[in-house]
Amino acid sequence: MTSPSPAVILRNAGVYLLLLFGLLVTVAPFVLSVMTAFKTPEQFASESALRPPSPATGENFASLFGGERNFVAPIVVTAQVVGLVTVGQLLFSVLAAYAFARIEFRFRDGLFWLYLATLMVPQVVTIIPLYTLFSQLGIRNTFWALVLPFLFGSPYAIFLLREYFRSIPEDLISAARLDGAGTLRILRSIVVPLSRPILTTLTIITVVTHWNNFLWPLIITSGRTWQTVTVATAGLQSQYNGNWTLVMAATTVAIAPLLLLFAVFQKNIVSSIAITGFK
């Protein structure tokens, strides 16, 4: 076995150095946030930001969850919103994607591509009409105002599922129809079980997207009753502008569920990247 040439070794070393630099740039903000969260305001003001906390303290987290701040409530609200939106996205996206993929009806392809074209519309364009609509309906600053715009599927989710459903062999669906299965039975017994990888992908994407959603909750809610994690963290930045250790504690708490999600579903996330990239 011949040893690699110096040019190959140098090229590989350059690739690994580039990857290491990208890793540092990506991970450094999170590490800095966690280190700052365990510092006192005095340590943060007098020491370098890159220096680890010595000694580490949990007073920022105690202050965050105690007293008037009550950071538990935004976490509960966000978890409820994410849970309901995820269920709605999966249910309605599966139904719509199957219709666009397997059911023949007039103008099917035209309607699909017209609906998909809404991906080109920025979110900020629809915020004012949605805000006006919800205000006139009297549901501004309510739980349903946070949920309804995202509950009934999305163009990206329907497109992703449609492409996957089209890859399922037609013979399986035809055989089920010959056995007397209806559309819902085919969906429940054949399409959904065969689509678990892409459904896992969509679940992960939906959870991460709506856990981090900021603009719509900021606009449609006021006060603390229906604050989400992102809005509550932004409120700390304005309310306690000089206390960055408290703000970093809130940021650490906000990203902790996503880190846990990554740790539990690491293999699914890697496979989801491959699936979405391929599709």
UniProtKB/TrEMBL annotation:
The chain crosses the membrane at residues 15-38, 71-100, 112-131, 143-165, 186-208, 244-265. It is a multi-pass membrane protein. Gene3D superfamilies: MetI-like. Residues 75-265 form the ABC transmembrane type-1 domain. It is found in: Cell membrane. Pfam families: BPD_transp_1. Its main location: membrane. Keywords: Cell membrane, Membrane, Sugar transport, Transmembrane, Transmembrane helix, Transport. Belongs to the binding-protein-dependent transport system permease family. This is Multiple sugar transport system permease protein. It comes from Arthrobacter russicus.
